[in-house]
Design goal:
The complex is a heterodimer of chains A (82) and B (390).
Chain A (H helix, E strand, L loop, with lengths): L4 H41 L6 H29 L2
Helix pairs in contact in A: 1-2
Chain B lengths: L5 H32 L4 H18 L14 H4 L2 H20 L6 H16 L7 H34 L4 H41 L11 H17 L2 H10 L5 H21 L5 H15 L7 H29 L3 H22 L26 H9 L1
Helix pairs in contact in B: 1-2, 1-4, 1-7, 1-8, 1-9, 1-10, 1-11, 2-7, 2-8, 4-5, 4-12, 4-13, 5-12, 6-10, 6-11, 7-8, 7-10, 10-11, 12-13, 13-14
Classes of the chains: A mainly alpha (82), B mainly alpha (390).
Chain lengths: 82, 390
């Protein structure tokens, strides 16, 4: 009887880590999006166009969603070529 | 392929029927939470799942060269009649659990069927029980726990991170994310499960000499296996979708995204590391974790208990039915015809019983639990279903 406990533990650890990381990054992206919305609506109230915060938040959101997309593409590669 | 016997034709048709029930049973895995949170409308969800299951059948270059991954000794045990008996048990168990709205593993049903039919047809030495333990039982216990834990942690984090943001933006964002995460599960499902049917048909053809040893699945096999699983997926096992999406917990978009991400990750990581596991159990475990990790930290434990009992029963129950079927099939053509008749009659009976509480795309999001109402007093559902299951 040979059970690969090591591989089992690795699989479990990797699954946990990847899941939490991807969901956290995605949630950060969503947080950034709502920051941008807040910045945009705040700017409408003011006369001076202070675009900094909104643009930075949008860039952050793009980075987050890009990372998630990369994780999905890696998943697709795993499916296609095991 | 000039001569295909009656038995081989029956095996191919039964394999495609199993593939259909497999898709039908497992639509819920990918789509239950997306349907429950409203990320996808029910019909749209099953259409996406069907298309991706079909695509998944073509995606993998890994050829289905083994049915069971070493669980049965395929050199001795791969006679078409044993495969037929195995499929009969697996189909009946899949339909019985569907009737009761319980997600159970189609792979375990198939493995159980193969084990039962092999023990009867070949003997105990036809089954590698070591492999059963390391390839089925341990992953079956570990994978839902890992998926549940990951999903629980991810749900907590998702809520914590987005708490300061706009709630509406968050819901919309997580719903969009769900479309991708559930699609990934569908694709992985098509790749794994459609290949099993391809393997069964191909190896049956090899075993009777219609194909050379080590042959790749012919194109018609790939297309028909992909088609059967896609059709089953499109029909949507609405009973199981309701149980998983609404029955376990009140799932909101962040929970749905977390549970689907956990399930997709566990499935892909495990198949990359060479562990076979049940998509169904992983997805159910993910939903349970998301329910507990959510703001209300709730879970309907009675349904959890029923699901876990069903998982434990799946393998032995399918083995029992298939063992009985194997006894009959060995008697010759009349045995095959009899098993076929029982299979058709049992499936028909369960479909008829399901009509007493019809669940469809229109009412899938109701919270009424899926039951088998014993409205007809004379021919109550339980005797009918226990006869076929026993």
């Amino acid at each position: 009887m040979h059970i690969k406990w090591n591989a089992l533990a690795q699989t479990a650890g990797a699954s946990f880590g990847i899941t939490v990381a991807v969901v956290a990054v995605f949630a950060l992206g969503i947080l950034a999006l709502s920051r941008r919305e807040a910045a945009l609506s705040a700017r409408e109230g003011e006369a001076a166009p202070a675009a900094g915060g909104g643009r930075l938040a949008l860039a952050g959101a793009y980075v987050c969603f890009g990372l998630c997309a990369a994780a999905v593409v890696y998943g697709l590669v795993l499916i296609a070529a095991p | 392929m000039e001569h295909i016997s009656f038995l081989v034709a029956v095996v191919i048709i039964t394999a495609l029927a199993f593939d259909f029930t497999n898709g039908f049973h497992d639509t819920a895995n990918a789509m239950a939470t997306s349907i429950a949170t409203g990320a996808l409308r029910p019909k749209v969800a099953v259409t996406i799942a069907a298309v991706l299951n079909f695509a998944g059948a073509f995606l993998s270059v890994k050829v289905a060269t083994t049915i069971s991954g070493g669980i049965v000794n395929e050199k001795t045990g791969i006679h078409p009649e044993i495969i037929f008996a195995a499929l009969a048990g697996a189909i009946l168990w899949n339909l019985l659990t569907w009737l009761r709205g319980l997600p159970s593993s189609s792979s375990h049903a198939l493995y159980g069927g193969l084990i039962g039919a092999t023990v009867v047809g070949v003997g105990m030495n036809g089954v590698n029980f070591d492999t059963v333990l390391s390839k089925i039982l341990i992953p079956a216990i570990a994978s839902p726990l890992v998926a549940g834990l990951a999903s629980w942690g991810a749900t907590k984090l998702a809520y914590a991170i987005t708490r300061k943001g706009n709630a509406e933006t968050a819901t919309k964002g997580f719903k969009t994310g769900q479309i991708f995460s559930s699609s990934l599960i569908s694709l992985a499902h098509g790749t794994n499960d459609a290949q099993k049917t391809m393997g069964i048909i191909t190896l049956t053809l090899v075993s009777v000499g219609a194909l050379p040893h080590g042959a790749l699945p012919p194109t018609w096999v790939i297309v028909s296996a992909g088609g059967a699983i896609a059709l089953g997926t499109y029909m949507g096992g609405w009973r199981i979708i309701r149980s998983m999406g609404k029955g376990l917990a009140d799932i909101k978009a962040p929970q749905g995204f977390a549970s689907e991400s956990a399930a997709a990750t566990v499935i892909l990581t495990s198949s990359h590391m060479g562990f076979g596991l049940s998509t169904t159990q992983v997805c159910s475990g993910g939903i349970m974790g998301a329910g507990l990790g959510g703001p209300k930290a709730e879970l309907r434990w009675s349904l959890v208990r029923r699901m876990v009992y069903t998982w434990a029963l799946t393998l032995p129950a399918a083995a029992l039915v298939s063992g009985g079927a194997a006894l009959l099939v060995r008697q010759g053509t009349w045995g095959i015809v009899l098993v076929g008749a029982v299979l058709v009659a049992g499936s028909g009976a369960m479909w008829l019983i399901s009509r007493r509480q019809p669940i469809s795309a229109d009412n899938v999001n109701d919270v009424t639990p899926v039951e088998v109402p014993a409205t007809a007093p004379a021919n109550a559902p339980t005797p009918a279903s226990t006869t076929v299951a026993a």
